[in-house]
Design brief:
The chain is of the alpha+beta class. It has helices at 34-45, 47-54, 110-126, 159-168, 181-200, 204-210; strands at 11-13, 16-17, 20-21, 73-77, 83-86, 99-101. The chain has a four-stranded mixed β-sheet, covered by helices on one side.
Length: 213
Amino acid sequence: MYQQAGNGMHLHLFLTKNGKNAFYKKGEYGNLNQLARSFIGGLLKHGPALSAFTNPSTNSYKRLVPGYEAPVALTYGQGNRASAIRIPKYVSNPDEVRFEYRPPDSTANPYLCLAAMLLAGIDGVVRKIDPVKEGYGPSDKNFADDSQKDHIHFLPRNLDEALDALAGDHEFLLRGDLFTRELLDQWVKLKEQEIKSIGTMPHPFEYKMYFNL
């Protein structure tokens, strides 16, 4: 809705093993251990490609803009609402220590969205992707106030960019045969049709800006 805060679908993630939180380690940043950081690294590394499933509508990217507490930066931190991943600071129970992936919205197909996110995180664990070494943080301040902002990676600015990212980064989705190349090709084809429809349809606001009534 125009000039209204966008409605995100923040997803909180943690892993249990033998009844214990497998992501927890007291004293580490956010009380998250290396396993959790590798999972975070996978999500952020594949964040642009994930956007094709977590933010699959042309409308999605009217929410993902700077200045509205929307996640636009591929970073993680405890108090930064501009980061794609935020670690809740209010959690004190070790069993509930977790992080939230904030870009998704409810135009997403939850089956595809959640499966893609899990595969991205698993890829991070398998490849031991370190989010710190990759330059994804941790960052507790808004990128606009960060002296290193020129080195920050950002989410796609529109669905076009998300599809381009998916075209160049989709091998992680093929692990375990959860996604097939045919499904990915069909998804891209469908989304390209949506982009074309919006791109060629005059918008009511264009009449207000350009039409001499």
